[in-house]
Amino acid sequence: MEVAKRAAGFLATGEGTKVLDIGSGVGKFCLIGGYHFPETTFYGVEQRKELYHFARAAKDLTEAKNVEFINANFTQIDFEDFDHFYFYNSFFENLVADGQIDQQMEYSTSLYNYYSRYMLNALDSKPSGTRLVTFHSLEDEIPPSYQLVDATVDFLLKMWVKR
């Protein structure tokens, strides 16, 4: 919970800020961020319908007013609609032989590369000052235009700002 709170605090830069969680799962990051930073709206995009429904149920239960969930592949989302981004390495399951959330999706190294390249290009098109937080990232999706500005001691949680 502390990781999510710290990440959300870095991304919640003021009134009306829109933060996108790429691969939001059951919505933990968005719900924690929404609770602690009510001036910011947190959006989660999740392609798995079941996880999306769990996230929506949690949102309804907590009555979060500044949290929204979208059931889609992140490549269907317009990054221009958001100010800052959170990424907890949701592409990694494409690189391992086991450990995937389920077997309902296609997994491959080429899909990992496609998603990483797509995200890199989308982030690179954002204006200077755009913030990104990564957790357990291999950094394949981070453009060279983003500068590391803070990290936890173990370097698992990293905070970036586009120059």
UniProtKB/TrEMBL annotation:
InterPro entries: Methyltranfer_dom, SAM-dependent_MTases_sf. GO terms for biological process: methylation. SUPFAM superfamilies: S-adenosyl-L-methionine-dependent methyltransferases. Residues 15-83 form the Methyltransferase domain. Keywords: Methyltransferase, Transferase. It comes from the Bacteria. GO terms for molecular function: methyltransferase activity. This is Methyltransferase domain-containing protein. It comes from Chitinophaga filiformis (Myxococcus filiformis).
